[in-house]
Amino acid sequence: MTDSAPTRRRHPERGYPRRRARIAAPLVAAMALAGCGPSPVDMVEHPVTTTPSRIAGEELQRSAEPEESCAPVPAPAESPGSGVRTVSSGGAGSGREEVPRSPERILALGAGAVDVACALGLQDLVVGTSGLPRGADVLFPASLVDLPDIPLPGDSGGDEAAAAARELRPDLIVLAGTADSDPAVARALAEVAPTVVYDADALNWTDATETVADAYGRPRAGGDLLLDVIDRARATAAATTPSDTWVSLVSVIGDSGDGVVVQDPDTLGSLMLEAVGAGRPPAQRTQEGERIPPLPESPAQGDELDGDVIFAVVGGSPESEEIARRVFASDRWTDLDAVDARRMFVVDRAVWEGSGPVAARAVLDDIRGSINGIAPDG
Predict the structure, then answer these.
(1) Is 169 exposed, middle or buried (0-12, 13-18, 19+ CB in 10 A)?
(2) Helices H / strands E in the chain, number of each
């Protein structure tokens, strides 16, 4: 039997409402078809991933190699030449947009747009970005992270963004759309260059990958990126048997209760754990990006944060180091069995809450490299 990429679904023509489409399910289904047979860094400003970094005394897992994360050779344009072609867009209007057949100056507005450009080897064509998370340099090379950042304020009608974009002379703009996006921003940017809007909801990152790759003139290459993630997820599941392990995924946030909560199910890290079929503690079970009640035969036992292994997501703010240090020293944290057994691994929020194939591959590498291991002494 053969793998197949998730089917593309059309984006809504007006606005960017949150859709009920799911991400982990298509990956799991494709894996089943294929399986018929058997920053938040406290020591350096620009971390080098070949050297272990630490946060709050704990080693920071870092499978991502930012300077090697992008494809070294650009995927060839699949409709080369001058002129335009028509692609899908989630922006206001007809839901279709005419774009260059082979764009040469791309404005990638949104982490997903940057991720796909990187995965396709188009990083040298990107002239500006927006929406990159704090700590993006753990995932993307400096050539992308240091590009001009286009402001996308919610109340300016897009005039400021359009003015900044015009200075960069793009021939294509790809814009992240969310449920509360102001359509005026897309309209203003469209006065600068053809603008394609993609769904930035993390649950729909496979659809977004296809939409963005199509806008970049590489639709088949975009499908190949998703097939590669499927292959890596299947290999991760085969190598680590995560279904035999209760994997706890928590977020160190510092702004509620003990400063640590069970990670939201509609984030990339949680979706990738679903994709590899990882077992989850009863209180953390998820399906297609939503929390589901514990099975009657699996009552919750002990702290909902605990499991056979814990992945702790850190980063995202200037206070991340201080927050993590406080959480990791708390009685609740030190009483967790996985912490006592040194089976707690600290991972980057910029990676585990990323969006796109580069981030997905890095999460899978983190899972494969850590899930059966023992954490180094802090």
Answers:
(1) exposed
(2) 13, 14
Domain boundary among 226, 252, 282: 226
> What CATH number did the domain enclosing 278 receive?
3.40.50.1980
134 shares a domain with 85: yes
pLDDT at residue 227 in the model: 98
The CB density around residue 302, as the number of other CB atoms within 10 Å, is: 12
State pLDDT tens for residues 11-31: 333 233 333 334 455 565 444
Residue by residue, DSSP assigns 94-141 as SSEEEEESS-SSEEEESHHHHHHHHHTT-GGGEEEEE-PPTTGGGTS-
Domain span holding position 85: 70-226
SS3 208: helix
pLDDT at 108: 98
Q: Is the pLDDT of residue 260 over 90?
A: yes
Q: Residues with Cβ < 8 Å from 11, sequence gap 6 or more?
A: 88, 89, 90, 95, 177, 197, 198, 199, 207, 211
291 domain-assigned: yes
State the chain's mean pLDDT as an integer: 83
Q: What are phi and psi of 157, to 5 degrees?
A: 70, 10
Q: pLDDT value at position 60?
A: 55
- How many separate domains does the chain show? 2
Q: How far apart are CA 152 and CA 174, in angstroms?
A: 13
| Of 169, 194, 22, nearest in space to 93 by CA | 194
**186 and 134 share a domain?**
yes
Q: What pLDDT band is residue 44 in, cutting at 50, 70 and 90?
A: very low
My answer on whether 35 and 165 are in the same domain is no
Is 233:364 a contact under the CB 8 Å cutoff? yes
Predicted local distance difference test score (pLDDT) of residue 372? 86
Residue where one domain finishes, among candidates 193, 226, 259: 226
In 3D space, the residue among 183, 119, 154 whose CA is nearest the CA of residue 360 turns out to be 119
Tokens of 253: 């946030």
**pTM of the predicted protein model:** 0.84
- Quote the CA–CA distance of 132 and 238 in Å, as a whole number: 33
If asked whether residues 193 and 281 sit together in one domain, one would say no
Q: Where are the alpha helices (DSSP H) in the chain?
A: 24-34, 111-119, 142-145, 159-168, 183-190, 205-215, 219-240, 268-275, 320-328, 331-334, 337-340, 349-352, 357-370
Same domain, 147 and 43: no
